[in-house]
Amino acid sequence: MLEAREIYPADATVFVALSLLPPWCWSSIVESLRRGVRPPDALDAALQRHYRDKPGERAALLDRASAAITRGERSGLAPVCWEEASYPVALTTIVDPPPVLWTRGSPDALRRPSVAIVGARAASPYGLSVAERLAADLTVAGVVVVSGMARGVDSAAHRGALDAAGATVAVLGSGADIIYPPEHASLADAIAASGVLVSELAPGTPPLPMFFPRRNRIISGLSRAVVVIEAGERSGSLITARLALEQGREVLAVPGNVLSGRNRGAHGLLRDGAKIVESADDILEELGMAPGAPPVLVRETDPVLACLAPGEPSDLDAISERTGLSATRLLARLFELELRGAVSRVGGGRFVRA
What we know:
With 354 residues, the chain is of the alpha/beta class. The protein has three domains: 4-74, no CATH class; 107-286, 3-Layer(aba) Sandwich (Rossmann fold), CATH 3.40.50; 303-353, Winged helix-like DNA-binding domain superfamily/Winged helix DNA-binding domain (Arc Repressor Mutant, subunit A, Orthogonal Bundle). It contains 16 helices and twelve strands. The strands form two sheets. Strands 1-2-6-5-4-3-7-8-9 form a nine-stranded mixed beta sheet, sandwiched between helices. The protein has a three-stranded antiparallel beta sheet with strand order 10-12-11.
């Protein structure tokens, strides 16, 4: 077997070590990385700040990180580090992006425009049917469907995308080698065959309750919009919707039966201004991807291109400030320019003019 340094970037072990620190350390770590601090220096600074009385913590963390990479290799997992060009740019814009994403499948699915579909685990036949239909129609339109592979709406959304022969992204609340719920093992295999399984948690991490609310920020962070189907008043899907709003993503909701009580959360979102979804066209229109829209041409006078120079990478915040575009709208335009070869992405969520 090749050594980890021959397969992954030199700092992969350091990034995995950073990910093993408590999540409340991550915001300050990412701030350091955004300022250009080298990953080993960011690790040392975090240890000095939070583990000053534990001089052996650095070596212990690096040992655990090496063990995680080895276990990941055996399970077919690959770590995608924050500074790699393959790390999803949309996720770099949130307050606390994970230093590492563990992936099984094709990380290319993380580079494409995505929409999250989330909702009730105990979904009605109507909710399951709507999730499958929306996911299939979005997939046909070239959008990647993101969800959490939970029972109910999540799994229906994944299956709808797969039935349309498309890629879908499943964000897990466990290590990417631990499938939960266990009856979704075959679904996980199908997702990995054409899309990707993703987790911020090291291989072998069990699906503990505290991990699921945190993984919701990744579901919304990867996506340009979040669609809620059949969310009750205490639904975890409402956490995803709240996080999406905090991250500047669009929030949409599907109306449902007013008698069952399972739709009160989604209807509350609609009362608060979320766009109503009756078909995939409603979602595509909100994203500026409505069917029949003319292609966006790449011109020298393009305001986004004008903010970029060859060989001078810029991050999303800098481009947003120069153009006046919101992060959601800007990401959509950058994806279009990337597909047309006008811009390229580099590590750390930055773009450069090609």
